[in-house]
Amino acid sequence: MILTLTANPAIDRNITVDELVFEDRAYIQDTVESAGGRGINNSCVIHSFGGKTAAVVTAGGENGERLKSLLGCCSFDVDAVAVKAKTRTNLNIMDRHGLTVKLNERGEPLTSEECAAIERALAARLPQAKWMMLCGSLPPGVPADFYARQIETAKALGVKTLLDADGEPLQLGLEAGPTVVSPNQQEAERLLNKALLTRIQMLEAAERIRMMGPDMVVLSLGSRGCVGAREGQLVEAVPPRVDVVSPIGAGDALAASFTWAMRRNDDFVDALRWGVAAGTASATLPGLKFASFDQTKAIYTQVQIRDNPR
User: What is the CATH number of the domain that holds 68?
Assistant: First the structure.
């Protein structure tokens, strides 16, 4: 089973408009609400691929009840940890050209007792897990080393971990030695305090991040695919050209399908190919939608793998 954590979930309001133009009006064509958060998205993708997954989330206030209602439609296990803080609301605005604006609330603070409740929920699931995915931002009040502690707990039980975070939680999590870390380009730039502009810089960044603690790095580069690094290997997975409709959630699809593939056959390069295929296929769909297994498989055969001499 692949366990996911979303400590700071949201109600995502996904708004489709005709065209986003600076200093001009746009007309709303459609509005859809969904349960938001990287871990939730990961579990949705893994489940749709036939993998077994369970999601631990927090839920508070009226929004928390709506979140649980939306997650009630999922066919995988969800453990909702009750908190007093109101579950946040995020706005995702996209137009027909693929231009996207994301407006996220930071979330409300959690208490130390609520943090402990999250840890207990994870501990109850970990004995049945092979992988744990620690995903997204931490709410205010949660210690920055929270992910690092969960990685150490998982390692003691022989559970592999993927860390998908930003800022100090990412930096401290790296020091705990996760199995995989999967930053996007912007997160990697903040981590390394360096702009990444060229292909060589992307390759060097993935290797430099690997030297900071994880066994493997999957550096997501959007439409350019990803760079994967592990000891003795530096690989680029390059997607085919596609018409991008909405890139929202593509990074989550990449991380989820990568983990699903690693759980299935533990082949790093093959998992990179699956990850890029899922992210690319999802970006061709409108709104916040994830590609099916069949849609992903159609792209999988077109993803190019480039090995780089070390």
Answer: 3.40.1190.20
Residue 104's contacts (CB-CB under 8 Å, 6 or more residues apart) are 10, 88, 90, 91
Which pair of structure tokens corresponds to residue 261?
Answer: 């593939």
- Give the CA distances from residue 87 to residues 57, 107, 115, 148, in Å, rounded to whole numbers and listed in that order: 10, 7, 15, 24
Query: Is residue 238 very low, low, confident or very high in pLDDT (cuts 50, 70, 90)?
Result: very high
Strand order in the sheet with 100-104: 28-36, 10-17, 88-95, 100-104
Roughly what angle, to the nearest 10 degrees, separates helices 199-210 and 185-192?
70
Please give the pLDDT value at position 240. Answer: 95
- How many domains, the chain? 1
Return the DSSP state at 125.
H
Structural tokens at position 298: 């159609």
* Distance in angstroms (rounded) separating the CA atoms of residues 8 and 36: 9
Domain boundaries, position 8: 2-307
Phi, psi of 204 (to 5 degrees): -65, -40
* Number of C-beta neighbours around residue 232 at 10 A: 6
Q: Which residue has the tokens 């927090």?
A: 58
Q: What length does the chain have?
A: 310
pTM of the model: 0.92
Residue/partner pairs of 61-64 with CB below 8 Å, 24 or more apart: 61/85, 61/86, 61/87, 62/86, 63/10, 63/11, 63/87, 63/88, 63/89
CB within 8 A of 122, min separation 6: which ones?
3, 5, 56, 132, 150, 153
Overall average pLDDT of the 223-231 stretch: 94
State the sign of the Cα–Cα–Cα–Cα dihedral 44, 229, 206, 149. Answer: positive
CA gap 172, 292 in Å, rounded: 34
Separation CA 184–CA 274 (nearest Å) = 17
